[in-house]
Amino acid sequence: MKYMEIRDLIDSELKKYSHNQLIPSERYLAMKYHCSRETIRKAYEQLRAEDKIYKVQNVGWFVSNKKIQYYPTSTDNFNGYVSAQGFKIRTELISTHIVKDFEGIQHFDIAHQEQGFVEIVRLRYADDVPVLLSYNYLPLKLFPNILEHDIISSVQEVVMHQYNVPYTSSQLKIKNTAVAKEDLHHLGVPPNQTAIYIERISKSSDQVIEYDVEIWPQDKIEMNLDIQG
User: Fold this and answer.
1) Mean pLDDT over residues 16-36, rounded?
2) CA distance 82 to 70
3) Could you say which of 3.40.50.1970, 1.10.10.10, 3.40.50.170, 1.25.40.10 is the CATH number of the domain covering 3-63?
């Protein structure tokens, strides 16, 4: 059987499964349909291209959930816009470090660069599926002892309410790129899958107060942009 025939057979079977449910392995389906695993793999890759399934490395293939709607112009944080879309959310703190150098440091004042930054790495979940790996960098000069606050759920809330520093503007750079090897494990995506990479430079008045990077598996979000005419 050709892989597109297999794809059609698998697609009809997907209706029996729930969102985020594990589906049969390539090996099992190869035996069921009397074909090679390569044929099954090509059929699964076709269904993934259609956003019907996704793969978690070293685990298997799952039925896709609805995608998170991402609005680049929105000032709402992850907790706000993802929970508003009906997802169950949680956040895991991966690490915190004091760093002197990182990609994006050139956007900060020299005085801030000299005193160093706190790096906060978090993994975000929607309906118990890892959907976002975030790296936040904040200058220690502006936010001393920031790790004493609840930075797990929202760095933005801590900055605004504990340090009385408002976010007034941000600059975003969005690109589709390969996932770095060290991030694959956290997001559970295979090496050949690309990700949406969002770099954000946040300001309070004219001063840069935060630099962060968001890494989203490409099959987890849809970009939306409202343009007023």
Assistant:
1) 89
2) 9
3) 1.10.10.10
> What are phi and psi for residue 137, nearest 5 degrees?
-125, 125
- Dump pLDDT digits (tens) for 182-203: 898 899 887 878 899 999 999 9
Lookup: tokens for 137: 């960098």
Q: Which residues of 132-145 are buried (b: 16+ CB within 10 A; e: fewer)?
A: bbbbbbbbeebbee
The superfamily in CATH containing domain 68-223 is: Chorismate lyase-like (3.40.1410.10)
Between strands 68-70 and 221-223, the pairing is parallel
